[in-house]
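Title: Comparing notes on inverse folding

I've been comparing how different people in this forum approach sequence design from structure. To keep things fair, I'm posting one structure and asking everyone to reply with a full sequence. Here's the target:
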């Protein structure tokens, strides 16, 4: 007789295999090109078993995206550390976020494929159900730093967040091309890249005595 705990573990294993298979196939082929039959075959379960755990392919896709969001969202803990100053917080976050993107390449490509290729209505779903909370949390942490006087209050914290995330995404996507540029020597040094990124964000590119403000 199979014990309830064994059945529970078997269910968890099945769900994880389904999620892993869906993640791989969605990242490689895109949502529309992947069938539930293909996911079931790769996971080693029946199609009925997939629908036992997920009511639709869209629900399964959202579950995969939520898993990705949890991984990347964990990097926000680096920004919220109370014992460090804002420079250390931002650099720790930039390093952790880029490291997570590079270490989870399949998930990263899945996220980018979804962000770039989906219809407007699905983009709203991704923003509302998947990525919105993490982005709002990042903006909130930056705003707290502004209110404490650690960052300029006249800067839009959402813009700072977009620049941090966008710079890391560009590095991930373009690093194989960047390595062939003779002036780029940080492709294989992501921590150095993160340090330079935060330095530019915090200190800008103008000399200290040549500060100019862009109007508009």
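Reply #1:
Here's my take.
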């Amino acid at each position: 007789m199979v014990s309830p705990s064994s059945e529970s573990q078997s269910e968890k294993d099945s769900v994880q295999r389904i999620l892993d298979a869906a993640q791989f196939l969605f990242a490689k082929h895109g949502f529309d090109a992947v069938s539930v039959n293909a996911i079931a075959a790769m996971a080693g379960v029946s199609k009925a078993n997939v629908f036992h755990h997920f009511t639709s392919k869209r629900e399964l896709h959202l579950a995969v995206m939520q898993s990705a969001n949890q991984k990347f969202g964990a990097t926000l803990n680096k920004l919220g550390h109370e014992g460090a100053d804002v420079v250390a917080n931002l650099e720790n976050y930039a390093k952790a976020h880029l490291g997570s993107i590079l270490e989870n390449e399949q998930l990263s490509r899945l996220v980018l494929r979804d962000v770039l290729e989906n219809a407007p209505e699905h983009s709203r779903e991704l923003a509302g159900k998947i990525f919105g909370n993490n982005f709002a949390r990042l903006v909130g942490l930056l705003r707290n730093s502004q209110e404490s006087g650690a960052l300029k209050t006249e800067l839009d914290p959402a813009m700072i967040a977009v620049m941090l995330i966008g710079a890391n995404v560009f590095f991930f996507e373009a690093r194989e091309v960047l390595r062939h540029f003779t002036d780029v020597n940080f492709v294989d040094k992501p921590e150095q890249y993160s340090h330079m990124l935060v330095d530019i964000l915090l200190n800008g590119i103008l000399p200290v005595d040549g500060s100019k403000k862009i109007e508009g």
